Amino acid sequence: MNEQVQEKNIYQPHLMEITKVIPETGDTKTFHIQFQDASLRESFSFLAGQFAEYSVFGEGEATFCISSSPTRMGRLEFSVKRVGRVTHALHQLNEGDPIGFRGPYGNHFPLDKLKGKNLLFIGGGIGLAPLRSLIHNVVDTRADYREITILYGARSPQDLCFRYDLESWGGNPTLTIVTTVDVGDNNWKGKVGLVPMVLEEIKPSSKETIAITCGPPIMIRYTLKSLEKLGFTPSQVWTTLEMKMKCGLGKCGRCNIGPLYVCKDGPVFSLEEIQRFVSDEF
Ligand SMILES: Cc1cc2nc3c(=O)[nH]c(=O)nc-3n(C[C@H](O)[C@H](O)[C@H](O)COP(=O)(O)OP(=O)(O)OC[C@H]3O[C@@H](n4cnc5c(N)ncnc54)[C@H](O)[C@@H]3O)c2cc1C
Ligand code: FES
Predict the structure, then answer these.
(1) Which CATH number fits domain 111-240: 3.30.420.240, 3.40.50.80, 3.30.70.980, 3.90.550.10?
(2) How many CA atoms lie within 13 A of 187 on its CB side?
(3) Is there a smaller number of Cβ atoms within 10 Å at the N or the C end of the chain?
(4) Whose CA is nearest to atom 14 of ligand 1?
(5) Ligand 2 atom at minimum distance from 255 CA
(6) Distance, CA 202 to ligand 2 centroid (Å)?
(7) What is the reported pLDDT for 282?
(8) pLDDT tens column, 31-45
(9) Dihedrals φ, ψ of 60, to 5°?
């Protein structure tokens, strides 16, 4: 293939090298990666909420959000829960191994709408990954926002991802962080209960507040109901959707909900937008 044709191949991944692997839980790992091409390392940019297609050579491609922040560009990070073929293959990789990367794709969290507001982050399990990108971003530009509350839940203390972030956010006096697990153990000092229950218990004010949530579908479903009870309107609630994807570019038609392609029109949507297009699902 000549160079000109290669340049036009929108599916061709860039080569990246894994620089660190962090085991988060029994089934989730975080990977730090870096472009092999030094000029791409310098020129690459993205916004919190965007995702990419990552390939394991000989196995295939899968979609993951970029879980690091655009305000911390030394490397990219993504976190992977092992569920099937590609995620299993990714979990076998080590520092120094190459992977493919194409992106960034999709829209991003609406920073312009968040500025000057109270922010309420609600995450469950690996759903903290896309929120984490935005949380680091707003922490790094803290003066632009009012109160920031992070509610994060997992099945058990062993299932909490990003413990190093939870610790660092917990030590930041400008953040309120609440962690909860479905089932605790003797050492657990956080709350015990499902995320929506704890949300109703801590009763964040909906006044001048934007809620941003990501987690398992069942958590999202009940969290949305709890937010409504707390007085949040659909335009005050944002989420990021994870429909199964293939191209990531709005071409294959795999990821639609109603008339929207999640890969191109999303993955970040306000609840207001989602209800407008797919009222029966949310
Ligand atoms: C925009 C976006 C961002 C994502 N971010 C992350 C992330 O940060 N971390 C992470 O671990 N995962 C993320 N996912 C989900 C991830 O893409 C899938 O888990 C992955 O593609 C599974 O690949 P696999 O080959 O291992 O699984 P497969 O062998 O293809 O499938 C294994 C099982 O997982 C199911 N599955 C596959 N893809 C999805 C999906 N998108 N949603 C629900 N079920 C699925 C299959 O139906 C099957 O039951 C994201 C998905 C999208 C669309
Ligand atoms: S993944 Fe192909 S159109 Fe969205």
Answers:
(1) 3.40.50.80
(2) 3
(3) N
(4) 64
(5) 4
(6) 38
(7) 57
(8) 999 999 999 999 999
(9) 140, -170
